[in-house]
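As the work plan foresaw, the team has encoded backbone shapes as discrete tokens. One protein thus recorded appears below exactly as we store it.

:::
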Amino acid sequence: MSKTAIFFATGYEEIEALTVVDILRRAGEDITMVSITDKRSVVSSHGVEVMMDKIFSEVNFDEVDVIVLPGGMPGTKNLEACEALMEQVDTFVETGKIVAAVCAAPSILGHRGHLKGKRACSFPNFEDHLEGAKVKQEPAVIDANIITGRGMGAAIPFGLAILEKLQGKKAAEEMAKSIVYLG
């Protein structure tokens, strides 16, 4: 079983973040919700406060296989401003570990040069930040170890894409059926 850490910053988009948590936990994956601050609770862009499993300083990145970056504003900007997290994102991409980002968050990967020559998607207003990417208007895109999602409305396909990368296409199809995903 893989270990996934999803990072929450003040102003995250709750549907994008919690849908991934839900889908992966249903599939039996080990997922940890992590606050990038020193507080266990994080408030979303719509005022929803959620308790995290860990704070950033408690994460042992040697034990993490997947980093997930939800979108939302100002959540995406707050994630990008966390230099310790950005160092881990760089290391994960460079070593072939999985990095997944949705909505505005793929812009972080573009800014850091990780999308050059890769297929990727993001919220339409952020497509110009996908520097060097082959931009797709698909709900979710898997290209090697990078997974991107388009936005809140694509949260389920994004979560299923992560599951597909971790457990295979059949597991993702079975999950889609079990949650009555009609997309």
